């Protein structure tokens, strides 16, 4: 099967990091295809960035359709554009936050999501509650701008580790979820250091995508995820007037 990993921000190095994590866990018959949005913010930190990233995300889903893919993963822990993408696509679309917290729920009664900035913490906390894990999970911010995760000299890893240690001590966390796609390369090392499950959303989403495809399941097109109604779009959005079905 072919799984498309779409980075909804425009930083190609983050796309490659996510693709590497995806390939590390993918089954032998799974091909990982990586795509970077060609328009939008260089990182996604909060609602404003997320809103402006959605057109680029949908464009990648549309433009990669002729080559074909069986499922797609949105490589942002804010689950940027997830609802729109599921409406647009006929194949399973998975978000990192939903995939990660569901996975953590299989492993621990209490867990903590450790993310980047406070503005992202609030957004992710709302997502965790929406996904039914609000009573079992706490969300913490480690005061790390996303792009600092790309800079070994930034001190970001030290901040992340300090927040994980507070989560284990103060929250009674039994597992940790890494709340940013830019942290995906750290999961195995942190799990060895702290001796608790450390869940990376990219890896979790890829394995869940494989399962859905293997089961022959995809997003329902009845009701809330029904395909968009044809209508004109104007200005910069005119390219979305003709809906190209994905699948």
Overview of this protein structure:
InterPro entries: Asp/Glu/hydantoin_racemase, Hydantoin_racemase-like, Iso_Racemase_Enz_sf. The protein is an alpha/beta fold and about 250 residues long. It has two domains: about 1-95 and about 205-240, Rossmann fold (3-Layer(aba) Sandwich), CATH 3.40.50.12500; about 95-200, Rossmann fold (3-Layer(aba) Sandwich). It is built from eight helices and eight strands; from the N terminus they run βαβαβαβαβαβαβαβα. It has helices at about 10-25, 45-65, 80-90, 95-105, 120-130, 155-170, 185-195, 200-215; strands at about 1-5, 30-35, 70-75, 95, 110-115, 135-140, 175-180, 200. The strands form two sheets. The protein has a four-stranded parallel sheet, sandwiched between helices. Strand 7, helix 7 and strand 8 form a beta-alpha-beta unit. The longest helix is centred in the N-terminal third of the chain and has 17 residues, at about 45-65. The radius of gyration is 17 Å and the shape is globular.
CATH topology of the largest domain: Rossmann fold
Poorly predicted sequence stretches spanning 5 or more consecutive residues: none
Instruction: Domain count, please report it.
Output: 2
Instruction: Give the percentage of residues in beta strands.
Output: 5-15%
Main sheet makeup: 4 strands, parallel
Shape: globular
> Strand tally, please?
8
Count of helical stretches: 8
Overall pLDDT metric: 94
| Helix and strand sequence | EHEHEHEHEHEHEHEH
Binned, the helix content reads 40-55%
- Global Rg: 17 Å
- Output the CATH class name of the largest domain: Alpha Beta
Estimated structural class: alpha/beta
Architecture of the largest domain, according to CATH? 3-Layer(aba) Sandwich
How far the N terminus sits from the C terminus, by CA atoms, comes to 13 Å
- Largest sheet, order of strands side by side? 2-1-3-4
């Amino acid at each position: 099967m072919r799984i498309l990993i779409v980075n909804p921000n425009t930083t190609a190095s983050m796309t490659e990091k996510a693709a590497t994590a995806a390939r590390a866990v993918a089954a032998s018959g799974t091909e990982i295809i990586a795509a970077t949005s060609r328009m939008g913010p260089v990182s996604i930190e909060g609602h404003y960035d997320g809103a402006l990233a959605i057109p680029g995300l949908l464009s990648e889903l549309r433009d990669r359709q002729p080559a074909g893919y069986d499922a797609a993963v949105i490589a942002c822990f804010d689950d940027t554009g997830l609802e729109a993408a599921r409406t647009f696509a006929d194949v399973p679309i998975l978000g990192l936050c939903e995939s990660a917290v569901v996975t953590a729920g299989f492993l621990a009664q209490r867990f903590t999501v450790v993310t980047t900035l406070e503005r992202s913490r609030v957004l992710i906390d709302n997502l965790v509650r929406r996904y039914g894990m609000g009573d079992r999970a706490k969300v913490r911010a480690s005061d790390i701008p996303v792009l600092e995760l790309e800079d070994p000299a930034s001190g970001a890893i030290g901040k992340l580790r300090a927040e994980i240690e507070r989560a284990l001590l103060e929250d009674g966390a039994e597992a940790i979820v890494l709340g940013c796609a830019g942290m995906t390369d750290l999961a195995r090392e942190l799990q060895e250091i702290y001796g608790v499950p450390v869940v990376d959303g990219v890896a979790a989403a890829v394995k869940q995508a494989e399962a859905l495809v293997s089961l022959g399941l995809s997003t329902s097109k009845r009701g809330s995820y029904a395909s968009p109604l044809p209508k004109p779009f104007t200005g910069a959005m005119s390219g979305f007037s003709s809906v190209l079905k994905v699948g």
